[in-house]
Amino acid sequence: MPSHHIDFERRLVAKTALPLLGRRIMFTTPRNYAGALGKLLLERGARVVWAPTIEIWPMADYTELDKALTDLRRYLWIAFTSENGIEAVWDRMAALKLPVSLLNNVKLAAFRADSAALEKRGLKADLVPAEMSTRGLVDELARRGVKSGRVLVPVPEVIDLKEPRIVPDFIADLSGIGLEPHRVPAYTTGPARGDISFELGLLRTGKVGALVFTSSAEIYAMLSLLGGDLSPLAAVPIAYMGRFIKDTAQEAGLPLQITIQEYGWVRLVEAIEEYFLKLPAGK
Are the C-beta atoms of 90 and 118 separated by less than 8 Å? Predict the structure, then answer.
């Protein structure tokens, strides 16, 4: 039985109910999200190895975002693609002393996993796509007959790293249905600066039971750290969260043992558990 059926408020859990027990699971998630994923893995008995390959930080210069927020009348929609974008907009409005009520004059789109970040700030998403992807968001806009208007898209500025396709594709898809997207940098994403040579050594020597990627940027950064050598990645089960990340892995020639189409920490960990439950005893 996968451990997601277990009440983790209890302290006594049978070993047989923990398919990740004792398995060394490495994840490359940045600090902003690592705690949530690490907690779920630890509760399930995994020996977690945190090896962040990317970092997410606030912008050094918010001129473009500030200009957009001070003239929200120009926009019909704000399309959020992450909780980081929501937080950045909220923080800049506070810094500019702009009333939150201004956001009631523009429609908000966000994924289900991020809509809670709006709700805790007293806001509500006008559009939450059934499919948690940028393509799903565009399809829902098209289904509602939204074919014109300007859309503010607060997204990361990718520094010193190949940019994943997800944002450029999103901008192109919005334009494709007749909308006018305005892409604005709201936070930065770049390679992690910390030393993870020890963790990479575990990976290279086959001492990692599974590897987890939660964004395409993490994959690009890992490939750079490995100098293009895919052999350590071919020897370990890899889990991917989301359709775009799976596409990135396929393009890079990586194996696809564990994939989920949606985004969500619990579902990701469940998929990893299910993979190990299917292995022969002793594996």
Answer: no
